[in-house]
Queue: 2 jobs
Job 1
Amino acid sequence: MSAFVGKYADELIKTAKYIATPGKGILAADESTGTIGKRLASINVENIESNRQALRELLFTSPNALSYLSGVILFEETLYQKTSGGKPFVDVLIENSVIPGIKVDKGTVEIAGTNSETTTQGFDSLGARCQQYYKAGARFAKWRAVLRIGPTEPSELAIQQNAQGLARYAIICQENGLVPIVEPEVLTDGDHDIKKCAAVTEKVLAAVYKALNDHHVLLEGTLLKPNMVTPGSDSPKVTPEVIAEYTVAALRRTVPPAVPGIVFLSGGQSEEEATLNLNAMNKLEVVKPWTLSFSFGRALQQSTIKKWAGKKDNVPAAQQAFLARCKANSAATLGKYAGGNADAAASESLYVKGYKY
Amino acid sequence: MAVSFTIRAGTYADELVKTAKTIASPGRGILAMDESNATCGKRLASIGLENTEANRQAYRTLLVTAPGLGQYISGAILFEETLYQSTTDGKKMVDVLVAQNIMPGIKVDKGLVPLAGSNDESWCQGLDGLASRCAAYYQQGARFAKWRTVVSIPNGPSALAVKEAAWGLARYAAIAQDNGLVPIVEPEILLDGDHGIERTFEVAQKVWAEVFFYMAENNVMYEGILLKPSMVTPGAECKEKATPEQVAEYTLKLLHRRIPPAVPGIMFLSGGQSEVEATLNLNAMNQRPNPWHVSFSYARALQNTCLKTWGGRPENVKAAQDTLLVRAKANSLAQLGKYTGEGESAEAKEGMYVKNYSY
């Protein structure tokens, strides 16, 4: 068959379209236990379950913030957690018209014979796990593939391996009722210029969509989570307008209109940078048949976590900070962000060399 | 968006983009008049004319001098002989076209031959010396090129045939762009067969996935290409016919799933449909805005009635040109989604499917 038309087809299409609603975006709150530990450590908070629960409760109960979100990606532990009042997080989200999603990959490992390139693990029992997650209320999933730019990277092997992995993950999700977010992240690490990033991003996306098509993935029931096209982290910065032009050009060359939404990752960009870049893309006057929105982790939570610092008394202020970033990014998806209401925390770069989730 | 063309762009990048955009302008499409001498001979024979250069010249003169043709036609694909010919008035064919605001294009493939190791399928030749030929055609005034390969559903198609079709197109496209010509990319999925529309849809999705992947590998710049697909229809011998709305639904779905928005224009081939069918189907596809210009590149579906009206007689030239303009205008309206189908002749509704048709 030419595309997957299983029992969930209509629901997948509907879910993907809803997540891609202009004016809304995704909160990526799916940090693994290890990674969230780093966040908590940065504010001197112990990495125990109650603290992880407290942070996520802070985010999900922020007054009015959820109205700017169409989805939240969760880590497995969080999918089954509750508020301090005993309400399942999943219910909190659904009641506020936010679709719960779930990270399903099991991290990256090196591909033997390459120069530290990686592939993503997580296929064992993936179908069964997706079914469980669907029962628990999840309706979309996420799997992060990683590529890097170097003198001979990304290699053909790394591109093919990651593209095939994303395609296999995507069809298994669709068989089990979850909209797959397809994430081929090309890392910013390096001293390459924006043109190099553009060329690599286009090559990777072409391979990804070829693989998705070969695996009969229903494109109308997927979302794309790509990197923005930027200069390397060790290269001089460029304006949001330049990033917007290269990024949108790359997407126009590779992403078929059947895909309803493109939700960018923020990589190591500061909260404000990420918002400004997204805004510039939405202001570009060129045909963009998919919604351009956000799926931000650090770029939505950074100031919020700092303001919270683990203290209950700080929760309202932290929630205000979170609301501000949600509002700003919502405006950016409409090309209406006025900018400039960033404090020091919001402008702080979140780039970490060799960043590992 | 000049900055983006530094990726995958050659010397002619800006011009290619401009040419493709001009051909893909609203309300206009392409007149395919690139029949090889042998094929043109069949056309002339059908109206009792001998296949001589003079007759081919007379017929092509009739076409290119139709007054006001440029209002509906943005490009004309020529055969090599015609590119270097003059009209019966002694003006260069290319000059007449340019004066009519019509861009001259050139067929550059060297036809289909049997594909060894396949299931009786074909592949398209023409890569040898293609670069210098394109350069020469550019000098002569051509600004776009066309390469037609085919895929046959009754014969599989085999993975080999699909791969070869896609790879050949990708190589041709890269070479054409390198030499200043906008490549029209044409993988025709033949109408022959008794398969239903779902099967055509399945094959078309596979073919286009391959075509785009290989074009990406060959660093083809999509803002400077045009596509010439076949519409998604049932096979000619299928018992179930499809309405224009069904053809539009399947074809648009195909386009949405396979064609990146960077491609400026999709110019459908008519492949044996009647003149009116081809117009109705195009019209159905333009009832809502599309991310690319969706238009026509018709040969028989523009020329059939015109050729018959001419019948080889000088006194019929004006009447023949009028019928050409009627069809051109109808398709122009269809491109805008505004075709109503009033006043069409029986002739125009006659199917032109020929089993095992070869150019």
Job 2
Amino acid sequence: LDYQHVQVPFEITLWIMLASLAKIGFHLYNKLPSVVPESCLLIFVGLIMGGIIYGLNDRSPPVMDSDIFFLYLLPPIVLDAGYFMPSRPFFENIGTILLYAVVGTIWNVFGIGFSLYGICQVKAFRLQDVSLLHNLLFGSLIAAVDPVAVLAVFEEIHVNEKLHILVFGESLLNDAVTVVLYKLFRSFCEMPTIKSVDIFAGVGKFFVVGLGGVLVGLSFGFTAAFTTRFTKDIRVIEPLFVFLYSYLSYLTAEMFHLSGIVAIISCAMGMKRYVEANISLKSHTTVKYFMKMWSSVSDTLIFIFLGVSTIGENHEWNWPYICFTVIFCLIWRALGVLVLTFFVNRFHVNTVTSKDQFIIAYGGLRGAICFSLVFLLPDFRRKKLFIAATTVVILFTVFIQGMTIRPLVDLLAVKRKRESAPTVGEQIHIRFLDHLLAGIEDISGHWGQYYWKDKLEYFNSKYLQKILLREYDQPKSSIVLLYEKLERKHAMELAQAGQLGHGPAHPSFLCFAFLCSSSDRTVLRDQKLEDTLNPDVLNNMQEILARNLYRIRRTGPAYNRHTLPGDSEPTEQAKEILILRHKSL
Amino acid sequence: SLSREDFQRIPELAINPLGDRIINAFFPEGEDQVNFRGFMRTLAHFRPIEDNEKSKDQNGPEPLNSRSNKLHFAFRLYDLDKDDKISRDELLQVLRMMVGVNISDEQLGSIADRTIQEADQDGDSAISFAEFVKVLEKVDVEQKMSIRFLH
């Protein structure tokens, strides 16, 4: 039995297998994911595993190594987030996002740090040896909202696009601030004296870290786009370039002590347009699927490891400190959101409503990043206290906030709804108005270009496209591509039916072919006109309408962890509408 | 000035069920070009109603973005033959555009009948503008039909 030889890869594969099997298990019970978010279940599985290992070995189970987390587990998730980030809402709200990410995080860090220092001064808690600097250091790592946890929970609650992008964008971008503050305070801990020059250096460092990350990311992104220009003859390795360049940008940024997360996001966003135009359709699908797969696996592993690492002897339980940490996290986040939103709303016409504010504040979940950062702390007397506090905060936010956010959202939404059910006429007219509005929004969106976006588009078409794209023609939108795909398919069907060359197909053929292939026809043949007054029939009608009226586009979040964009119902709907209009032309 | 082709180049309008009608709403009667002024007039219907406008001068002409004018705009999208009534056929046409292929014509017909029945008060089997307004009285039209053009 040669276990030593294969031990490391074997164990890694076993962990990944466990993670994937756990995921299958959850989705077997349909009701469970709606009540308990997946992240909670995964942590729970991790807790069980940790308990088993602890019981068997009688020593602490392997703690998640910070290196493994930061180098292997985090990049796929952030890459997935950056690649599939809907860029238009992101850039429209970039001001608000940056405000929340930068100013909000700084507010939280100092708020939590100072208030915890105040708690430490109370003699009864026996915490006097925790210095201000240590508290600020702790504050800096606990204040940051975690993208992994936020994503996992927000998927379950369907909030409007703007809110989703705000919380999502904030959780991704606050990494730059967290990195700077964490490293700053850590170096302060080691320096004997702190001069004000150092503080200014810290502020300057923030800009360097953030902007440097963006530059590194963009340069790698454009290099990737440039490389794919020449891959016409070796299509098979095209997907590899996307991943290699993104990972390189992350590692390079980390090497220079810049923000790796910001780098990988800007790399993904920068290269997306050009790479998608250059690589083949199949490579494109491969890229998308692999990204989703890796980020899914990473996500699951992180939560399981979180659970496993919780068990063990790493903790020092000082309950007052821990409780106050949790309380202060909540309070400072709520205050921060309130104050910042006040400023945001004064400059924008599009206000962030109080319900949105509640969700932003309540949805500030902490996750694995805090956990890894706390393990990276230098060893000092009170390190275990911090580890314990971090663990409790993470478990609290993920379990309690994660589980209750959905009922709370529903509660808040239900209050605004009307008491009586809408009549059939209202249903139709409301949907009519929704479609109308969606159309007008699209029209005005396209003609209401903003100044910088205009400039960027100009720069893009004049220079970037010529260098980075292989075939220099107008990049086609996905809708046009879909339409072309349908046309091709139709032409193939006609050719197969032997009708090509007999002129354009009769519209009814297209309609007939389509209808025959569509499944799930609910036809009520016994409907008579007199029945329209029957209440049962009325309910039926409303149900039918609710099921069959076309949905307006973009009713749900554009980013979803588990499905590819364009893979779900809206494309079916789009196909139907296109065919109907084609028929009527 | 803009022509219909310019509008049709917007991909999202291609998959909007009411795409053609929305485009037609921009063009004045019988013309194929719309200039900037006309374009803005149409979009002005969708300006949000601000509170201070409600108390503004009642003597002047009603602003384009009042509730009544917003609803009138929507009404005109239904009413193709401009007889100030939505007949059963016009309603059926719109319904067919908005609904999936899984519904039969009979079902659609009964839905249309039901809609007219609910709204019709003067018994002419068609929906007049006043009846249309009445159906939507509980709906927050001001909020629904507003676009925040500035950020």
